Structure prediction request, 644 residues.
Amino acid sequence: MSTDTASDTFSSRRAGHRLRGNDLAFTVVITIICAAVLFTTLYPLYFVLIASISDPTAVSTGKVSVLPKNISFFGYQQIFEDSRIWTGYRNTLIYSVVGTALNLAVTLPAAYALSRREFRPRRPLMLMFAFTMFFSGGLIPTYLLYKDLGLLDNWLVFILPSALNVFNLIIARAFFENSLPEELFEAAMIDGVDYFRFFTTIALPLSKALISVIGLYYLVQHWNDFFTGLIFVRDYDKQPLQIVLRDILLSNQAFSGGAGGAGGSGGAYGQRYADQIKYGVIIVSTLPVIILYPFLQKYFEKGVLIGSVKG
Amino acid sequence: MSAGTSTSAPRRRSRSDTASPALDASRDRPPLKARLRRHVGRYWQLWVMLAPALVFVLVFAYVPMYGIQLAFREFDFTKGLTGGDWVGLKYFIQFFESPLFGELMRNTVMISLATLVLGFFTPIVLALVINQILHSRIRRLVQTVTYLPHFISVVVIVGMLQVFLSPSTGLITRFLAFFGIDGVNFLGSTSAFVPVYVLSDIWQHTGWNSIIYLAALAGVNTQLYEAARIDGATRLQIIRHVDIPALVPTMIILLILTMGGVLNTGFEKVFLMQNTLNLPVSEVIATYTYKIGILSSQFSYSTAIGLFNTVINFAFLVIANQISKRASDTSLW
Prediction:
C-alpha cells in the first residue's frame, strides 16, 4: 500500500516542471537490469521446456534456442512408460498431502496458543521451540532414534519427523498476534466462547492467507524432500520422486532398463535420448509446483512480511 | 495487570472456590498449588492445542540432542544410544588430528563464506531495483518471476546444471565457448566447483531473499521521499540516503542469522554436485559425517564431528548477536 504512495510521489515528480537527464538515464539503467534479470531467470526454464520436445541432436549441436526444432515426444513417451517415475510420483503425492495436513493440524493450534498474550508460559515455550532452529542432535543420534522408533524404511518417516517446522510456527504465531484484533476476542469471550471455539470458528476462517502461505511452504518442503529418502529409506517402492529424479538426472539411469549412459548397446544414440528424457523429467517433476505457485503468489509478501515483524 | 489478564480469560473457573478477579488482584500470591490449579483451569485448552507440537519437538529435536553424548562414548550396539563406555574427547581429538580436518574446514568455510558474502548483497540490490520500478504490473511480473526458482528442488537444479554445463553440448558451455572460455569441464574441475555452486545458488534464491527487503522498503515513511525530493535529491541519492539506511536493521538481523550457518553448507546440493574429480574441494563436514556415519557406521566419530559443527555455528550466532547488540542495539534476543 505504502509502495503505491511511493510510486505516486515519483510520478508526480515526473509530471513536475523539470525532468532531469540524470533521471532518464537512471530509468534506462533500471529497465535494462530488470530485463536482464527476467531473461536470466526465465530462459533456462524455457530452454528446458523446448529442449524436452526437440530433436536431441538439434539440441546438443546448439540449433535449438528460441523455438523447438523437429518436435519429438520420444522423451515423454519414455517417461510415461517408466514405472519408477509413477511410483515416485504417487509416493510423493501421498507424503505431501498427508504430511501437509498433519503439518497444519500441528502448527496452527500451537501457533494460536503461543499468540495469546495472557498465556504466561508462552515465552519460555517459544524459546524452547526456537532453540531447535540453531541447535540439533545431528545426523547419527537422529538416525539411531528413528531406528529405535521403527521409522527406518517406514513411510511415516516422511511425515512424522517433519510435522513441525519452527520457522512456520513463528510466522503463524506472528500472524495471529498481529492480524486478529483483540476486540474480536474480547467480544467473543463475553458471548462465552472458549479458546477451542474461538480458534476454529473465528481465528481460522480469518487466516486464509496464512494457511495458504505456510501450507505451500510445507507442501514444497515435502515435494522437494530428497534427504529423508536418501538417509532413512532403502526400499525403492517407498522412495519419493526426488530420489527417482536423482537416479535419472544424475546417476545416468535415464532408461528404466538400465541402458542409460554411452556404454550400453544404444551408445551415442542412448546418450542423446537420455538428455531428452532428462529435460522431460525436469518438466514433469516441477510442473505441479509451478502450476500451484501463481495462485498463492499474492500471499507471499504478506506472509513473510508478517513473519519478519518479530524476527 | 493481573486483573487485566483475568478478565480476558475466556473461561472463568466454574469451581466454587474461585475468587472474583477484583479480589484476586488485591490479594497476596496464593500458594503454588492453587496457582497451578487456576492456571490449568483457565488455560488447559491452550495446552491441549500445544500438546502435539510439544510432543513432536521433544521427540524429534530434543531426544536426538540427548543422544549427543554418543560423541563422548564408545558406541555399543548391545547397549544402545547412551550405554557405551565414556571415552571423553577421544573422537574430537581423532578428528582434529585427522589429515582431512584441514581440508574439510577449508572447503566448508570457502563454500559457505562465498555463498554468504555474494548471496547477502544480491537480494539487497534486487530489492532496491524492484522498488524503483514505477509501473506496478511490471513490478509484480519481476517479483513473480524471480521468486519462482526458489521452489525448484535441489535435485532438479543440479540436474539442470549437469545438462547445461555438460562438456561441448551444454547450453552454458556453448555460450561461454562463444566468448572464448573453452575446454573447461565445469562439473569435474576443482576450480569451477565453488563458482558454479555459488552462482546457481544466487540464481535460485536472490528473488526470494529479496522479499524481506521489499517489505522493509514498503514500510519507509513517504514523507522522507518527499523531503528528499524537495531538497533536490536525484533518484540515486534517494536510494543512498533513504532506502539503504531503511534496510540496515533488516540486513543486521539477516547477517546474524547467516553467521549461525557459517559451517552449514547445504548437504543436499554439495552432495549431489560431488564427483571423484571435484572431491578435493567439495568434501565438506556435512557430507563427511554422512559418509563415515551412515555409510561406514562409525557412529561415535560421526556424532563428534557433527557436534563440533553445531557448536561452532552456535558460537558464531551468539558472538554475532552480541556484537550487534553492543554496536547497533539490534539483536535476536
Remarks:
- Residues 1-19, 258-266 of chain A have pLDDT under 50 and may be disordered.
- The CA atoms of residues 7 and 13 of chain A lie 10 Å apart.
- Chain A has 14 helices and no strands.
- The first helix of chain A runs from residue 2 to 15.
